[in-house]
Amino acid sequence: MGMLEGRVVIVTGGGNGIGREVALIAASEGAKVLVNDLGGGPRGDDRGSGGPAEAVAAEIRQRGGQAISNSKSVTDYDAVVGMREQALETFGGLHAVINPAGILRDSMFHKMTNADWDVVVDVHLRGSYNICRATVEHFRGQQDGAYVLFSSSSGLFGNLGQTNYGAAKMGIAGLSRILALEGAAKNIRCNVIAPVAFTRLVAGVKVRDEEAARQLAEMAKEMPVEAPARLAVALASAGARAVSGQIFGVQKNDISVMSQIRPIDFREKPDGWTVESIVDEALPGLSSSFTPLVGGFISSTRPAGGA
Q: pTM of this prediction?
């Protein structure tokens, strides 16, 4: 019996990359899968097609599983409600949502257009809100549900040319944490994955030097999409029912749990701070705890001594 036997799962962005692998693995673990994919390109600026989602659903059925397809956009709330209803009407239930759907519109911030900001935030952050909001009352009613959302090192660590993407991805981490807190009493779990995997989105990232190009080429060989997909399916399973509110990193054979924002240092002044004393005392005193101003889309998160 598979880890998702008898469960119904919606997978967004399921026509390509990580989402495709999530759908295939979930089905192999016994899930009935609604495969959603708009069928557009990595920038989200070309006309969509139902082909990619249906191709994955057909592959699952050919392997003996149960799957249906949906080609609506996660940015359309009514369409997302339709996904929920399609899953309920076809399979008689819904137990988990895995949401890797995404696009990129990279640009240095001083050159970014409003349109490129809006569409990336809309797909990632609004899309995550839509799929969670459209299903949370169903999960609350049955007192069972799991969300697996997707963040990125671009949001958690930073990366040049990705302010729109990074802001949306950091917002997803905040959404997930509070949804996990609010859902705990109703057995609703929510976790986030920040994957390092070679997808068509990563393949389109502009590299600015030879080292970045070397990393990208190495990533194509060493960072398969199956690794984050397997983690996503595991987190959606009943076997992970005690895990919620976490941010996981995953790359190839390494799985890490990320720290979340907490105070790490402080300075106190009993008679209060002035602007001058903050500059002269507080900031220099805290400087040894500052986070270095470095980024990069490939970031090692494995601690020393990790298994």
A: 0.87
